[in-house]
Amino acid sequence: MNLFSEIYGAYYRIAAKILEERSVTPARMNELIRKYGFRDSILFLPPKLDPRSEENWGLLQLENGVFKAVTQNPPPKIVTALQKRWLKAILIDPKIRLFMDDTTIARLDKRLEDVQPLYRSEHFHVADRFSDGDNYVSESYRSVFRTIVEAVRKQQLIDVTYRSRKGTVKQIMLLPVKIEYSHKNDKFRLYAVRKKSGVLSEGCIVNIGRILSANNTGIVDDTEVSLNEIRSFRRCDEPVEVHITSERNAMERFLMEFASYEKQTELDDDGCGCTVRIWYDESDEAEMLIRLLSYGAALEVLSPPSMRHAAAARVHRQYRLLSSGGKNFS
Amino acid sequence: MSSFSELIKNFHKTRSYVRDFFIYGYKVRSDFSRKSSRTYDDEKRRVESWLGDYISYSTSERGKQTCICVDSGHIAENPLYNAYYSKSFTANDIRLHFFILDILSDSYQLSLKEICNAIDQRFNSVFDVQTIRLKLKEYTDEGLIIASKSGKTAYYQLSTDRVMGFMEEFEGLPDAVRFFSEQPNFGIVGNSLMRSADMSNDIFRMKHNYIVHTLEDILLPDILLAIDEKRYITAESFGVHSSVMHTDILVPFQIISSVRTGRRYLACCDTKYKNICTVRLGFIKSVKVGEVCENFDALQRKYQRCLKRCYCVSMSRPKGVQPLKLVIRTDPDETFIPERIRREMRLSTLEELGDGRYLLTIDCDDPNEAIPWVKSFIGRIESIEGGEPIILNRFFRDIKRMEKMYGGESEE
User: Fold this and answer.
1) Does A205 touch chain B (CB under 8 A)?
2) pTM of this prediction?
3) Which tens digits make up the pLDDT trace of B191-248?
4) What is the pLDDT of residues A187-227, one digit of tens each?
């Protein structure tokens, strides 16, 4: 059993697609290569499949200008031992109950009774996840979650009642678009578009943990809404630009921590520091600022001015606090 | 062009290039001094081919920089999975793959001899019997084929577990696969299942997701096997600042990850220094499973004791270390601050002192690990004491340097 095996590879998958269609024109073959292959596969794969080529693998034969499969059956898509072990492992995760009911889980578990899980929860330890993650055990949470998943899939409007940050209960009509999970917060959030007076209006983000009830109206709204449309007005106008020095390995730590962001990096001429520009969602601005400050003097916020001023204000306040009474500061 | 291939034999070499393009983004050709410039060109071209949409270029005075530029919260599927879908193979491998599956699709079960004959007749292709035997053995291990014996003869049949059958039979499974395929730790396996079922992830997005971890997953099967069988491993690693390789014999216990810093570690016992420690998974090149470790249970108990007092990954306790005590000041309308502290703190207590002041006590083995989090409260720390003198002095020095950096009061 191997994670890195050609049986899962792009080339095997393309060959299987072609054999599944039984016969393809050269144009259709190229279309499948472009769709399922890497960017340059179209340069390398056609001679391996084209029966007129000397390098061909012998999977197709030429008949009346089309390429016919030499095989007699569509290639079977089998759940491999590795995939079964993975399925067995995810059955142990409490979040599986967001997707499947207990009876279905028990049936799948029975089907995989001779299979060893690929991993167990005790193999892994997350050191610093926030402690107020969503309550996946709650039956009402699961019910809300499943309603939302189904509505996202079917593009159906849902009638949602939720408790706002200020504690007030509100009711809104939403067209759900995507569900976001944060590994750090261990929470799900719903990206949706609000429907007001029968018209799709502004995009919004709702913590699923705050939703008290969600009812699927069954009304399909197939308006094309992309996640980027909801996010576009939230993406920062200007990236935050910072300079990081290499002291105490800050540069490597920073680039690793912010690896999940869209960014541009430039190393200083002396190699002892770098300038990084990071694009982030505006709603994450406060989080971004405190994460940057956590690098202390190894990092300087350069721009935009608003972010630099916010960092400076906090630093000055800190300096004053310690100067006016902090032990051992002077 | 003839010698270049999109496919690779050695995952570890490519893994290191992808990692550098993704994490650093500022490296230029001359920074990749480990191998020849032709190797660099080939690896770069491969990465461009796998991840075309996510590659960006910029020019600095040092040269042209190649960067894998992606916000992991905005993508449906981890593009780095493509590295796993690029394993090279021979013409015979792919021929036999489809020929064997085709022959067995028509029959309940066949012997090796029958399979050889059928391949010869149907495809007019003759393969060495031993080659077919080895392929059947490989596919039995992979679960594609089930082998059984009748007398002295081995018979082979296709596994009846089909991807679409699973997806249809178990309600909710397709969405579960969509979600878990983007989770850390073996998400690649779920993605392979999703692709096999012609599915895509059109529902979920992942925030704070360190997609680069998938490249380290290649090491996990051996590490987890060694943990389960209580064995040593031999790990070949390079340092953070150096490409010089070193080999260590370790007793592995657990994989520790930080969802805030994006780092993932192997918690283990280093047999050379006989101490419990953590090793960055990203710096381990390869792992070999070794002999059974006789005192595994005792070492693991020691590790569990260390873990209870470990703030993140540091397993050592400096001499004379004291609990770190901070007084945090908040304004009356800032109830979200104590809420945030309670949500994020570990090995800590929070005590309300009145007037919006809170005493935060962090009692762990190495308070230095808590300092980056402490600094995220800059602007609110009325006092800080305890820990170690070196930690406090560095903190105070940092605040003074930052005050200068931001131009004193003039910049507020």
Assistant:
1) no
2) 0.94
3) 999 999 999 999 999 999 999 999 999 999 999 999 999 999 999 998 766 678 899 9
4) 999 999 998 887 888 888 999 999 999 999 999 988 888 77
Q: What is the dihedral of CA A11, A16, A21, A25, to 10 degrees?
A: 30
Q: Does A303 contact B at CB distance below 8 Å?
A: no
B352 with B400, same domain: the answer is yes
Whole domain around residue B267: which residue ranges? 216-307
Task: Tally Cβ neighbours within 10 Å of residue A107.
Answer: 15
Any CB–CB contact under 8 A between B321 and chain A? no
Instruction: Tell me the HSE value of A88 on the side-chain side, using a 13 A CA sphere.
Output: 18
Q: Are residues B117 and B192 in the same domain?
A: yes
Does A62 reach chain B within 8 Å, measured CB to CB?
no
Lowest mean pLDDT among A158-162, B50-54, B366-370: B50-54
**Contact state of B82 with A10 under an 8 Å Cβ cutoff:** yes
- Token pair for residue A78? 């089998």
Angle between helices B112-123 and B129-142 (to 10 degrees): 110
Q: What is the pLDDT of residue B1?
A: 46
Interface of B with A in 276-305 (CB under 8 A): none
Pull the structure tokens for residue B304: 């569990």
Chain A CB contacts of B227 below 8 Å: 123
Domain at A240-323: CATH code: 3.30.70
Kindly state whether residue B135 falls inside one of the protein's structural domains. yes
Token pair in block for residue A131: 């402690």
Chain A, window 30-59: residues with a beta carbon less than 8 angstroms from a chain B beta carbon: 38-41, 44, 48, 57-59
- Give A262→chain B minimum CA distance, Å: 4
CB B73 within 8 A of CB B209: yes
Handedness of CA B226, B221, A260, A255 (dihedral sign): positive
Contact A58 B123 (CB under 8 A): yes
